[in-house]
Amino acid sequence: MSLIPKAILYYNSRSVWASAALLALEEKGYGQDEVELKSVDIGKAENLSLACLRLNPKGTIPTLVVPLENTLAPELEHRFKAVTDTKSIVDFLDKSRSAISKTNTTSSAPAPALAPATIALSSTSKNVIDLLHSEDADPNKLAYHKATDVEMLKQAGPNLTAFLTTRRDAIARYISESAAAEISASDKTRKLWAEKKAEAEEYLSVFANTSKSDSDLPSNLKEKRDEFLKTSESLWSVKLKRVFVALDKELIGPFVLGDQLSVADVHLAAWLSRIAYMVGGTVTDTGDEILGKIERKISNGFTFPKDFQAPAVLESKVDPSLQVTPGAKRAKLAAFWDDMTARPSWKKVYADGLH
After folding, report:
1. What is the domain partition of the chain in residue ranges?
2. Which of 73, 120, 173, 328 pairs with 144 at a CA distance of 20 to 30 A?
3. How many CB atoms are closer than 10 A to CB 266?
4. What's phi and psi for 333, nearest 5 deg?
5. pLDDT tens track for 309-338
6. Where in the numbering of this chain does the GST C-terminal domain appear (predicted)?
7. Higher-scoring residue by pLDDT: 71, 63
């Protein structure tokens, strides 16, 4: 049994950005015994528990806790550091397993470099990653605002109400326990709890009343509903459209930087899979089908430019009747989806469906 300390990835199986970290683990060929996975229940606000906040004061998922290089020897006291944002986690996983890294590894799998090879490609990669993590592209906010009309809001209400109620109540318990001196929390932590509780309650003021028609709502709640739907429409039809336009200009195709997978593709795969899930996509959909569903959701005549030359030979992962004519031009993101979803890493992370 190895005495070498392991890294620990705190994740949630339905977290969009935790999925990026999981994809990176698979693409880099880490062995199952090299990184321990610890699930964090976001619905129960476990990410905001004192134990999690000691590792990551922001309370975000994923969080990667890694042993410091100079404390790896079995006879030494092991010390650790936490990597707390997705960009840094993916970069760390890429650099920590390579032909020249000093990381102890039990895996014999290849460790392809995912970092861009040139300054120009590094710039494109950074632009894409920053875009995907921008406020306009925020997949978690888009998830809350998936409903853009009253009927969709009514359908989404029960599940989101249950999720947010459980989360709010868990945060309220933290606050209560701190007030009663049952746990010791800093002012910064108490402020974070108050903010997260208020955020949940704000959404609940909309979702908890979705069974009521507009005419049955008090004027203040009717105003909140109208404002919520207005925001939803803007997020999907204006801001997300802007993101896709900017993204298309950066992509080379079929992957972000061309034929080879890079760190940017790990982020894009996780983000696009969440968008696909929210528009009703499935793991069996082709890239063209996914983009068609996104176009219908954004609406207002939006279409993806079809300016990528399709390869002459296509993988037979779908019904031949759905394949693109060899040599035909298609959207870059459609080609990306087809190539990415054919990879073993993506199939493993999304084995239970899109999320």
Report:
1. 7-115, 123-140+235-346, 149-211
2. 173
3. 30
4. -70, -25
5. 866 544 444 444 445 566 689 999 999 999
6. 165-355
7. 63
11 phi, psi to nearest 5 deg: -145, 175
Q: Can you tell me the distance from the alpha carbon of 280 to that of 156, in angstroms, rounded to the nearest whole number? A: 13
Strand partners, 329: 309
- Give the confidence band of 73 by pLDDT, cuts at 50, 70, 90: very low
* Nearest-10 crossing angle of helices 263-278, 119-132: 30
In CATH terms, 7-115 corresponds, of 1.10.510.10, 3.40.1080.10, 3.40.30.10, 3.20.20.140, to 3.40.30.10
Q: Residue 116 has what pLDDT?
A: 96
Contact partners, residue 253, CB within 8 Å, separation at least 6: 308, 332, 335, 336
Residue 93 confidence (pLDDT) above 60 = yes
At residue 251, does pLDDT exceed 50?
yes
Structure tokens at 347: 């199939």
In one-letter notation, the amino acid at residue 123 is: S
| 244/331 Cα distance (integer angstroms) | 11
The mean pLDDT value for 161-175 works out to 98
Peptide bond into 139 cis (omega under 30): no
**Taking every pair of C-alpha atoms in the chain, what is the biggest distance, in angstroms?**
71
Which residues have CB under 8 Å from 240's CB, separation 6+? 136, 137, 142, 275, 298
